[in-house]
Amino acid sequence: MELVIEGVSKKYKGDSYGLRDLSLQIGTGVLGLLGPNGAGKSTLMRILSTITKPTAGKISWNGVDITKDPNAIRRILGYLPQDFGVYPHLNAVEFLEYLASIRGLEPAIARKRIDELLHLVNLYEVRKKPLNSLSGGMKQRVGIAQALLNDPKLLIVDEPTVGLDPEERIRFRNLLSELSGERIVMLSTHIVSDVESTATDIAIVNQGKLVIQATPSELLAAAVGKVWEWVLPGPAWMEIRNQLLISSTVQGSDGVRIRVIADAQPSAESRLVNPTLEDAYLYFISAHKQLATV
Ligand SMILES: Nc1ncnc2c1ncn2[C@@H]1O[C@H](COP(=O)(O)OP(=O)(O)OP(=O)(O)O)[C@@H](O)[C@H]1O
């Protein structure tokens, strides 16, 4: 199973670009597509789900060019868009039966599949409740269930954890991880912790371009020797906060513990610490922004 994206660009009207010459090679597992707002994540996902076409480049699924033969990917695709909406007065069973019929599933097969999916996404107990009475996380799990109706080989989920509380976010992450065994799952997000424990591969995008595609451990390794911590008294911290790339700050009784990404030691008191994936992400995004402004 392989999805290959080669030199894909999307130029919108008025000379704005959603993607610029982006290439990725994606195999079975969870690919975390990570980037700030406006990086081009939704544009890529909309292209892969054949809602929109690239203005340049090629995408192939197991060797078949999907820009020429969109049905080749539609048959194996499950998609949860960022702005997924439900019919509020239907319950989960009615909603999924409705979507299954639109997608041409045989009613008997659909009923069996919907039953399995409701168990899988842990919504069986609430399957008869109107969708507008469910929590945000439950609605997102209905969204995943509809994306899985045709047992897709390629599952695309666009910023699925926006608006979820921490507990629901963790549950949703674990669900995606469980689903990745026999398929490619592409998960877009701007929240590093969404992909930290689940992604087998991470692609960082910024300003429509690929910054890097690597495994989480490769990203962490690249940030070793670049993350520093030390404690600063309050006023001193105010002075330097705009001059350094700050990963986090924690207020303590002795001052502010500051965590900084820098190639060289930023202060005599600072000491090197082990990077987190969040540090690595900041490091790559910042290096990319600097390159773009040179
Ligand atoms: N229909 C459109 N017309 C013009 N420009 C667009 C259109 N859709 C997206 N863009 C631009 O393309 C760029 C990438 O947008 P996109 O929505 O793909 O980013 P994103 O990474 O998904 O961000 P977000 O997390 O905010 O959704 C942005 O600069 C955006 O303004």
Automatic annotation (TrEMBL):
GO molecular function, one term: ATP hydrolysis activity
Keyword Transport: yes
CDD domains linked: ABC_drug_resistance_like (cd03264)
SUPFAM superfamilies in alphabetical order: P-loop containing nucleoside triphosphate hydrolases
Pfam families tied to this protein: ABC_tran (PF00005)
Gene3D superfamilies attached to this UniProt entry: P-loop containing nucleotide triphosphate hydrolases
InterPro entries named among the record's database cross-references: AAA+_ATPase, ABC_transporter-like_ATP-bd, ABC_transporter-like_CS, P-loop_NTPase
PANTHER family assigned to the protein according to its UniProt record, in alphabetical order: ABC TRANSPORTER, ATP-BINDING PROTEIN (PTHR43335)
Protein name as annotated: ABC transporter ATP-binding protein
Species of provenance: Paenibacillus albidus
